[in-house]
Write a structure and sequence with these properties.
- It is a single chain.
- By secondary structure, this protein is of the alpha+beta class.
- The chain folds into 4 domains: 121 residues, Rossmann fold; 77 residues, no CATH class; 90 residues, no CATH class; 154 residues, 2-Layer Sandwich (Alpha-Beta Plaits), CATH 3.30.70.
- Helices cover 36% and strands 22% of the residues.
- The strands form 8 sheets. It has a 4-stranded parallel sheet with strand order 2-1-3-4, sandwiched between helices. It has a 4-stranded antiparallel sheet with strand order 21-22-20-23, sandwiched between helices. It has a 3-stranded antiparallel sheet with strand order 8-17-18, with no helix packed on it.
- Strand 3, helix 4 and strand 4 form a beta-alpha-beta unit.
- Helix 15 packs antiparallel against helix 16.
- The longest helix has 18 residues.
- The chain is flat.
- The chain binds zinc ion (3 copies).
Length: 478
């Protein structure tokens, strides 16, 4: 609806570029549909638009077909200057393309509304042109309040689902899915709706699986459905054809006439026969063959991946505005950083070992950087980075080469200490507490470190596995 405020905002927009396919039926109606917005510069080619001297406040696309829509959108989203700009389509071109756009501009007013909303959030984001990969994605989401990254089904992709925006905004060659996974683990993205559950190959994680029915006795796929009859007189079970005689049904073994079902005979439960081994069975063995690595798995061996819509969390919004606190862990990540899975497996192994052998003692410490987000909001970035680097150096000095260090997310880190007595762990905990005290008081602000610890000597805690133990410690450090 054109009103005073809309036209004021429209005038405030310096330029809305239009990219219209040279040929194709949609091109004609486009200028009319976009109304006054097409006053801005027109381009017929995406490279012309990228090379143009001015950066438009918004871009309207009228591609000739879905393939062109995808190419244009991918090129623009990858572009350093235009990647975060509002880009609207004249109509829908399918889920994968639409996911890269800012929607369909049903009218010139709706396009202006969208562009103005994004422009309004831009100042609080600061200069983000140089942002790359995950930072760029966070900036994109920050500019669009409430935007949800939706996974799109793609049978060509071995994960079956992909997030087109993550692929387009990530660094060249970066795996968009893993980037999102990392951001989620760090609490910068949170899940919205569950979109799909996909079974995946336990060997290579691909989702392209072929489900096949096999003989439970010999594994052959050559099985057929058959009716089997069971003779009451002698107990013979055989295929229905074997019972067919000139004078009706008769048992091939004892020659009894089978007149009445339920009296002389009945149907056997088995309805499947194997042509490989001749076996009969009621339920085939369902197996899954991975089309990527050919591994044949039982269905209960398959892993499952869940695809959710993803949106910026409160921590993610803060990270988009003030920079990611994850960057502060750079120095820590560089020294003896263990992979989370390796860390958990080692802990599991030590737990089992200490149960069987009393002389095996180890300790586990959960460290929580309790006020990082608060500090990030209050202190200049370089100041906080200095404080954190100093802390990381001193922490490094405390850790033996045989200890394992693992960073879970932006708040929690772990220390696994093999061959450590409760007394030894007590000393280390005191030193960690001292680190926090010494983290250079700056306007009364210091890095607060909360800890919780477990010693293998405390066995009677009802701890069954590594994950449960780590969950307990996380709660206690929170
Ligand atoms: Zn068989
Ligand atoms: Zn019989
Ligand atoms: Zn596989």
């Amino acid at each position: 609806m054109p009103n005073a405020s809309t036209s004021a905002r429209f005038r405030a927009l310096p330029s809305v570029a239009t990219l219209v396919a040279e040929r194709g039926p949609v091109a004609h109606g486009t200028a009319a549909a976009f109304g006054k917005l097409t006053d801005g510069p027109h381009f017929a080619d995406v490279q012309q638009l990228i090379a143009a001297a001015i950066v438009p406040a918004a871009v309207l696309l009228a591609p000739g077909d879905a393939r062109q829509a995808a190419t244009w959108l991918e090129t623009l989203r990858r572009d350093v200057r235009l990647g975060l700009a509002p880009i609207l389509l004249n109509r829908s071109f399918g889920a994968a393309s639409d996911a890269l756009s800012d929607g369909v501009a049903s009218s010139s007013e709706s396009a202006v509304e969208c562009a103005a909303a994004i422009a309004a959030r831009a100042p609080s984001l600061g200069q983000r042109e140089t942002a790359e990969g995950d930072e760029r994605l966070l900036a994109f989401l920050y500019l669009r309040a409430g935007r949800v990254l939706t996974p799109v089904a793609d049978w060509r992709d071995e994960r079956i689902y992909r997030y087109p925006l993550a692929d387009a905004l990530g660094r060249p060659g970066e795996d968009g899915f893993l980037m999102l996974d990392r951001l989620r683990r760090r609490g910068l993205l949170e899940t919205a709706d569950l979109i799909e559950r996909v079974h995946t190959c336990p060997a290579c994680s691909a989702g392209q699986l072929l489900f096949i029915e096999t003989c439970p006795q010999c594994g052959s796929i050559d099985t057929v459905e058959q009716n089997f009859l069971h003779c009451y007189a002698c107990g013979n079970v055989g295929a229905q054809e074997e019972y067919l005689t000139q004078g009706g049904l008769g048992c091939p073994k004892c020659s009894a006439r089978l007149r009445h079902i339920g009296v002389d005979y009945d149907r056997a439960l088995e309805t499947l026969a194997c042509r490989g081994c001749g076996g009969r069975f009621t339920q085939p063995d369902v197996k899954a063959r991975c089309l990527q690595c050919s591994k044949l798995s039982r269905t209960d061996e398959l892993a499952e991946r869940r695809y959710y819509g993803l949106r910026l969390s409160a921590a993610g919004e803060l990270a988009a505005r003030t920079g990611q606190v994850g960057d502060l862990f750079k120095l820590m990540d560089e020294f003896s950083q263990a992979h989370p899975e390796y860390f958990t497996r080692t802990l599991e192994w030590l737990l089992g070992l200490s149960r069987r052998h009393g002389e095996v003692q180890f300790g586990l410490i959960c460290l929580r950087f309790a006020n990082l987000h608060l500090l990030a909001a209050r202190l200049p970035r370089h100041r906080l980075a200095q404080m954190f680097d100093a802390l990381a150096q001193r922490l490094r000095a405390l850790i033996r080469t045989t200890d394992l260090f693992m960073r879970d997310d932006d708040e929690y880190c772990w220390l696994l200490l093999p061959q450590t007595s409760p007394a030894g762990m007590g000393i280390l905990l005191e030193r960690i507490a001292a680190l926090s005290e010494a983290s250079m008081p700056d306007e009364g602000l210091r890095i607060e470190i909360a800890t919780s610890a477990f010693s293998s000597v405390d066995t009677d805690e009802g701890i069954t596995d590594a994950r449960m133990l780590m969950g307990n410690l996380r709660n206690r450090a929170g």
